[in-house]
Amino acid sequence: TVVRNCEGLGSGTVTSGPEGPQIHLHASVGAKGESARATAGHVLRGTVQYPVEVVITEVLSPALSRRPNDRARGIPTLHFDG
Fold first, then answer.
1. Which of 11, 13, 40, 45 has the fewest Cβ atoms within 10 Å of its own Cβ atom?
2. Res 1 pLDDT > 70
3. Which of 10, 77, 6 is nearest to 37 (CA)?
4. Do β-strands 6-17 and 20-31 pair in parallel, antiparallel, or remain unpaired?
């Protein structure tokens, strides 16, 4: 779905992976000028031109990782390590 001129809110995680950081992001965005039409779900790709705020909270303990989960059909899910 292409959404232009929108406002939104998102949340996600950044964990260490074998090839570097793994970003998992959810977002809900509303298209300006289109009443209450909104789109929500996983962010797979996008271009942000004017970010206003990004709040990052670092979790030092417990360690987190994202690993394939057989119960979720192999989709990587968040795990508490240790």
1. 45
2. no
3. 6
4. antiparallel
| pTM of this structure | 0.62
CA distance 13 to 9: 14
- Tens of pLDDT, residue by residue over 30-78, are 877 777 778 888 888 877 777 767 888 888 888 888 888 899 888 888 8
Length of the chain: 82
Q: Which H, E and C letters describe 6-31, residue by residue?
A: EEEEEEEEEEEECCEEEEEEEEEEEE
Measured over the CA atoms of residue 35, residue 37, residue 40 and residue 46, the dihedral's sign is negative
